[in-house]
C-alpha cells in the first residue's frame, strides 16, 4: 500500500453549534504518529471521533486508507463477560489473537474474570488489548494513559513503538505524557 494511512485536510469540527477547531491538516504514513494535546474541551476527543467516522466533518476532509481501531473512554467490552470472552467477541470479527493481546498488556491472569470486576487501569489495559487484537493498521487512542500506572504507561509506549515499527500508524489524544518519538504534534487551542 502506498500513500498515507490517514489524511486530514483543512478540517473543521463543530459541536453544539460551536466551532472547536478549523483548518486542521495531518497526514500519517506507515510508522508515523500524531500527538494531540490541548486544554479540556478544545476538541481532542472530537477530533478522534471525527477521524473514526463517528462525528461529521464540518469542513475539509478526512480520508482513512486503512482499517482503524478506536480506544475511546469506554472499552466497548461486555461488562458481564469474562475478559477473554469479551475480547473474543471482537476477535471473531477482526481475527485477532486475544491471548497474545492479554499477555502483552499484562492481563493474562485476568482472562476468566468478568470485565465489570476490573479496576480502572485494568479496564484501560483491556481496551488497549482490544486495539492490539484488532490487527488494524491505524490506531486512534483517546486518553490511553488515563488510569494507568507508570509501568503500564511504559508498556503502552512499547506497544505503540512496536506497532509503528511494524508499519502501523497511531494518533494519540492525551493530556498525560505519552512518549511518541518523532510524532507530529497538534496542539488544539481554546474553543471558538
Ligand atoms: N454531544 C455534544 N453536543 C454539544 N457539544 C458537545 C457534545 N459533546 C461534546 N461537546 C462539546 O465539545 C467540546 C469538545 O469536547 P471534547 O470532548 O472533544 O474535548 P476534549 O479536548 O477531548 O476535552 P477533555 O480534555 O476534557 O477530554 C466541549 O466543549 C464539549 O462540551
From TrEMBL:
GO molecular function, one term: ATP binding
Sorted UniProt keywords: ATP-binding, Cytochrome c-type biogenesis, Membrane, Nucleotide-binding, Translocase, Transport
Signal sequence segment: none
Domain of life of the native organism: Bacteria
PANTHER family named in the record: ABC TRANSPORTER I FAMILY MEMBER 1 (PTHR43499:SF1)
Organism the protein comes from: Sphingomonas canadensis
Alphabetical list of Gene3D superfamilies matching this protein: P-loop containing nucleotide triphosphate hydrolases (3.40.50.300)
Name of the protein described by the UniProt record: Heme ABC exporter ATP-binding protein CcmA
SMART domains in the cross-refs: AAA
Domain ABC transporter intervals: 6-192
Amino acid at each position: 500500500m502506498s500513500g498515507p494511512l490517514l489524511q486530514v485536510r483543512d478540517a473543521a469540527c463543530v459541536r453544539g453549534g460551536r466551532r472547536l477547531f478549523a483548518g486542521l491538516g495531518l497526514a500519517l504514513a506507515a510508522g508515523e504518529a500524531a500527538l494531540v494535546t490541548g486544554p479540556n474541551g478544545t476538541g481532542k476527543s472530537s477530533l478522534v471521533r471525527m477521524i473514526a467516522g463517528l462525528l461529521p466533518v464540518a469542513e475539509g476532509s478526512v480520508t482513512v486508507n486503512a482499517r482503524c481501531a478506536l480506544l475511546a473512554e469506554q472499552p466497548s467490552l461486555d461488562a458481564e463477560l469474562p475478559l477473554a470472552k469479551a475480547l473474543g467477541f471482537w476477535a471473531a470479527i477482526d481475527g485477532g489473537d486475544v491471548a497474545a493481546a492479554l499477555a502483552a498488556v499484562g492481563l493474562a491472569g485476568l482472562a476468566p474474570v468478568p470485565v465489570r470486576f476490573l479496576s480502572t487501569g485494568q479496564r484501560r489495559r483491556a481496551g488497549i488489548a482490544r486495539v492490539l487484537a484488532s490487527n488494524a493498521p491505524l490506531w486512534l487512542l483517546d486518553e490511553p494513559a488515563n488510569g494507568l500506572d507508570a509501568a503500564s504507561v511504559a508498556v503502552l509506549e512499547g506497544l505503540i513503538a512496536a506497532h509503528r515499527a511494524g508499519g502501523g500508524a497511531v494518533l494519540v489524544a492525551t493530556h498525560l505524557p505519552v512518549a511518541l518519538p518523532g510524532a507530529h504534534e497538534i496542539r488544539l487551542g481554546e474553543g471558538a
